[in-house]
């Protein structure tokens, strides 16, 4: 099928991807990426859908993905070595912030996997690996970006669409900037110093008081993508899950 007027071959060419599958409706783009990976699809394969009916986020949460309002993207990676999904999610978030800056939009990153605009959620990232022993066979990255209004009533108060601050923006224009950056992501198992420094500039949680899962204040991230929390007993690491600000 076409995606905003482009057939899959045209879309793959525009995104510099080896292969692109565009679908009207899927359970989750992540599911399709896993299926394609098991069939031998190459790294850089892209899946886009107009609608997800079971899009998912961290901890089993559902990502609202109504028709044609956003980018519901699945992306296949075949890393050369061990790679933490939290590290990859941060790298993808940084890549998306680079794109937003190019179009004049200033956003932030909220650990572990959200892109925040005006204190509301604009995008989310979820990475799932399939393993062979202690090495990943592949990693499927799912990225959801709210592009057009209206947003569903159940999330309208806590989410934001990109066209609120960038009228006339299109899904294709974002994908053309974003997907080639995914092709060039570093393959190192931990975050590079420059990545941590960049994250610090966009860190929405930095210095905020937290009440769950630890009481303390957010103090950035380490090289493994863990959140550092300053508590009365010292600095603690949160490896996964989610946090609640006080």
Outline the structure in words:
With 246 residues, the protein is an alpha+beta fold. It has helices at 8-15, 29-38, 85-102, 171-183, 193-202, and strands spanning 20-26, 46-52, 70-77, 108-110, 114-117, 120-132, 135-146, 209-212, 216-221, 227-231, 234-238, 244-245. The strands form 2 sheets. The protein has a 7-stranded mixed β-sheet. Strands 11-10-9-8-12 form a 5-stranded antiparallel β-sheet. A hairpin with a 3-residue loop joins strand 8 and strand 9.
Fold blueprint:
Elements: H1 8-15, E1 20-26, H2 29-38, E2 46-52, E3 70-77, H3 85-102, E4 108-110, E5 114-117, E6 120-132, E7 135-146, H4 171-183, H5 193-202, E8 209-212, E9 216-221, E10 227-231, E11 234-238, E12 244-245
Parallel strand pairs: 1-2
Antiparallel strand pairs: 2-3, 3-7, 4-5, 5-6, 6-7, 8-9, 8-12, 9-10, 10-11
Helix pairs in contact: 3-4
For the biggest β-sheet, the strand order reads 1-2-3-7-6-5-4
Mean pLDDT: 93
Return the string of H and E elements. HEHEEHEEEEHHEEEEE
Q: Detail the poorly predicted runs.
A: none
Globular, elongated, flat, extended or rod-shaped: what is the shape?
Answer: globular
The class by helix and strand makeup works out as alpha+beta
Give the biggest sheet.
7 strands, mixed
User: Could you tell me the number of beta strands?
Assistant: 12
Helical residues, percent? 10-25%
Tally of separate helices: 5
Distance between the termini: 46 Å
The fraction of residues in strands falls at: 25-35%
Radius of gyration: 17 Å
């Amino acid at each position: 099928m076409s995606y905003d007027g482009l057939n899959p071959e045209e879309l793959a060419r525009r995104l510099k991807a080896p292969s692109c599958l565009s679908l009207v409706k899927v359970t989750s783009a992540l599911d399709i990426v896993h299926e394609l990976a098991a069939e031998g699809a190459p790294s850089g394969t892209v899946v886009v859908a107009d609608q997800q009916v079971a899009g998912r986020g961290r901890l089993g949460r559902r990502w609202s993905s109504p028709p044609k309002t956003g980018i519901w993207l699945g992306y296949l990676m075949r890393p050369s070595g061990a790679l933490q999904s939290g590290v990859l999610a941060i790298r993808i978030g940084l890549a998306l912030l680079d794109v937003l800056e190019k179009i004049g939009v200033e956003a932030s990153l909220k650990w572990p996997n959200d892109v925040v605009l005006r204190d509301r959620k604009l995008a989310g990232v979820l990475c799932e690996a399939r393993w062979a022993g202690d090495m990943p066979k592949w990693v499927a990255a799912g990225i959801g970006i709210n592009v057009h209004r209206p947003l569903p009533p159940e999330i309208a108060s806590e989410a934001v669409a990109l066209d609120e601050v960038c009228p006339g923006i299109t899904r294709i224009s974002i994908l053309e900037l974003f997907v080639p950056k995914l092709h060039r992501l570093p393959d190192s198992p931990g975050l590079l110093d420059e990545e941590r420094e960049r994250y610090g500039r966009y860190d929405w949680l930095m210095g905020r008081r937290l009440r769950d899962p630890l009481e303390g204040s957010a103090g950035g991230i380490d090289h493994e993508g863990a959140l550092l929390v300053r508590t009365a007993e010292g600095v603690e690491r949160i490896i996964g899950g989610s946090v609640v600000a006080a």
